[in-house]
């Protein structure tokens, strides 16, 4: 039953939201999990405690993925804690919407540095650290890369870049038995979505009206797919993007 027994996984941005849920699902399936966070130590410690109190293995490691030197430290600390690496979930991400006339360089770089630069450099570090049996990289993209809602030019572009990097890295790393796939969620109720003000009101109502299954997602709608991509159940799947959005596309 333990699909990830003896696996070691890093989940970036796992102090809350989708990342925290993936970390808990991974631990439940037997993985040792590195719960990465940028600033929410309390949230990350809470996730670790929840895992370890049920007999699972997890450590919290602070690192801002927008800074490659901190990514190197994250991977070094993973090696120190668990000795190896099998799975990387590139989940850490920022979403800020803005009409094009208000877009600033700061708005652009903040999102691209976390969502794209961070993902590329973490993937580079993972490819170096995976053993001869390879590994699995799971990128958390978004349905926004294809749904393309107004005022999301920068955010949606970061996720378009994630989709393309997923396919490129799958082609490039396949010969080393490293699989690379993405999960592209629709709107999921998380702390970040509440903070952004998307969880209530007009935007949510519009999304739900266009969603065949008629609701936004919960983190539990996403995490099982991450377990699938991390496990041997998906051994012959790479370079794919799985949209999980209640049918919104
Ligand atoms: P969230 O609730 O805002 O949580 C974001 C997580 O990422 C937190 O743990 C945060 O850590 C971490 N993080 C942010 N910047 C970081 C950085 N520079 N370095 C390391 N960690 C960082 O977000 P979410 O809604 O769960 O979204 C997670 C991912 O899913 C993102 O990539 C997002 O684009 C994608 N996604 C979300 C939705 C949605 O509707 N929720 C839909 C599609 C795709 P701190 O708290 O320490 O800052």
Automatic annotation (TrEMBL):
Keywords: Oxidoreductase. The keyword Repressor does not apply. The keyword Oxidoreductase applies. One of its GO terms (molecular function) is oxidoreductase activity. It comes from the Bacteria. InterPro entries: NAD(P)-bd_dom_sf, SDR_fam. Belongs to the short-chain dehydrogenases/reductases (SDR) family. This is 3-oxoacyl-[acyl-carrier protein] reductase.
